[in-house]
Amino acid sequence: MSLFKARDWWSTVLGEKEEFDQGCLCLADVDNTGNGQDKVIVGSFMGYLRIFDPHPVKTGDGAQAEDLLLEVHLRDPILQVEVGKFVSGTEMLHLAVLHSRKLCVYSVSGSLGNVEHGTQYQIKLMYEHNLQRTACNMTYGSFGGVKGRDLICIQSMDGMLMVFEQESYAFGRFLPGSLLPGPLAYSSRTDSFITVSSCRQVESYKYQVLAFATDADKRQETEQQKLGSGKRLVVDWTLNIGEQALDICIVSFNQSASSVFVLGERNFFCLKDNGQIRFMKKLDCSPSCFLPYCSVSEGTINTLIGNHNNMLHVYQDVTLKWATQLPHIPVAVRVGCLHDLKGVIVTLSDDGHLQCSYLGTDPSLFQAPKVESRELNYDELDIELKELQKIIKDVNKSQGVWPMTEREDDLKVSAVVSPNFDSVSQSTDVEVGADLVPSVTVKVTLQNRVTLQKIRLSVYVQPPLVLTCDQFTFEFMAPEMTRTVGFSVYLKGSYLPPELEGNAVVSYSRPTDRNPEGIPRVSQCKFRLPLKLICLPGQPSKTASHKLTIDTNKSPVSLLSLFPGFANQSEDDQVNVMGFRFLGGSRVTLLASKTSQRYRIQSEQFEDLWLITNELIIRLQEYFEKQGIKDFACSFSGSMPLQEYFELIDHHFERIYFDLVSYLMLLKLGLKEVNKIPSFFSNHVPVLHTCTEKLRINGEKLEELLSERAVQFRAIQRRLLTRFKDKTPAPLQHLDTLLDGTYKQQLET
């Protein structure tokens, strides 16, 4: 616990099971009283808007009923609340509330009541803007140097900046190369918007450049825009900070200088107006929010930084000046003047803990009592020490938590895989194809030396391998008792398992004199399944799309010795090529060099190489161990096939994406059950987001390629038309062939 705890001045808990974020807190004189006292404005993702005016009777009191000035449910989730001059014709402050698809501006006013309940507050909707795109955050300011009013800029989830001149929509611009939205702030001194892109770069865009850039009605560029209609949006300056940003704040020293503060995941940065680093500070803990403000007395900048360790640090530039303990993790922090108390720190947690506090310490009033002095009897202490040592020695000799005198295992677990397949296959409801799917029996034997209880045997194999039974339970086993259980393993699925190794895990309790309930312990053993369970002999192939070469330091071994049963024994007992056909239909060829110490594995599908490669290495190691050779080693000298690996992952994601889309279509048509939606989406929604973003990027690339080919097609048409209109016949110079090829490329795109 920190000695310097934040002194609780006023606190409350907002709602039940509501969620909040950094944009949900704002401090301002929203009702325009003019007395310099701020109100606490909080919006939640549940759509509740609350305005507080804390008046604690004494320090540390909770919220009273009269502290809540207004509470209204706006139905839509509240992403951000701000206060400014948002209504034309007046310089009064108004409240702007950002929803995901709507921007609303309200006036907050209070009227004196006729009874003793005091002033009644209400909000009135001045205007609202329905957004065509999903909003992320917003900022406001005197864009373009306007006087006496504030304009609002909203950033959408797809990177579009929408500028509103109070009651009217001004324009919208897409930020170049935007993938994910970042924090957004406005610098009035340079008249520019500053954000952090998904490339981890701080970027600055001039308002004038945004205003005169090409309109963002469509994301892609048209032919007229390429020919010069409108100006291209260019960045003013960029700075690579190498990490994602949590928030951006801009603080002005005076009229001639300002600083841009960026809070990263591990650092916070102070930048000049032109993007140069003024200073940076590496943080010891993961930050959650921050608030820079000018230090009036010393002319420097102080920064409040909250972190996930419930701490609030106060930095003066890069020097830590104060550290205080909070009762929660803050996601938003503000400083204001409440009830004639300046510099009150207001913090908000993600689950609705709102606290107004100030910095300070509590003096310790505890005084240690005086110890009564008495003479020590060393003879009695010596006798007591010997008795304690004897007790400790007896406990170590007796059966404790881990018996020290017994070195043998309480339970021995062994597994035996049958060398032959089951006469009647146990495979049911398989999805492999036309091949007959075999099954093999595995027997697990338990041999205990002492009394055991609550024995539970669990067996695991890699999917799509399945077991006829994977759980076995025994309540009690007497000493020197043997139990054997059997089960079958078979392939269920058209893809390959990552390995053929299974694991049998036994959990049990061993009772002792001191613990009759038993000491929980675990024992396990592993077993290997035969390759023939998922693979059959096949015809070798001379050519393949994917190849892998394994180098060894020993002479090549006949493949017949390594894989008996997968090839017919020849006269010279030397087999250097062997084919494998998996039950799913794919084929793999294994070749052993006659002259060099190499083995090659090749297949038409990249993912089929691993299982045979792993099996080859294991069998080579077992072969040379039987020969008494211990220095056998395998190596791979080629380049890592990362491109094929990444393409395989992309293909897997795309397949899941299309499965999800198909599922949603069937669900919309009423062909799927609604009660299966939660479990289905909980496993695949992150993949859906990844695939959607990738397909969007690929779609943009295809649109750009199609546009280029359309320009080429029209250019060829013009040249052909010129040749046909010419009075003097001239050769076409293969323009007709080029036209036909371009047309086919367009159809393919």
From TrEMBL:
Residues 437-527 form the PTHB1 GAE domain. The keyword Disulfide bond does not apply. Residues 530-637 form the PTHB1 platform domain. GO terms for biological process: cilium assembly. Keywords: Coiled coil. Residues 371-398 form a coiled coil. Residues 694-748 form the PTHB1 hairpin domain. The keyword Acetylation does not apply. GO terms for cellular component: BBSome; membrane. InterPro entries: PHTB1_GAE_dom, PHTB1_N_dom, PTHB1, PTHB1_hp_dom, PTHB1_pf_dom. It comes from the Eukaryota. Residues 1-363 form the PTHB1 N-terminal domain. This is Protein PTHB1 isoform X6. The gene is BBS9.
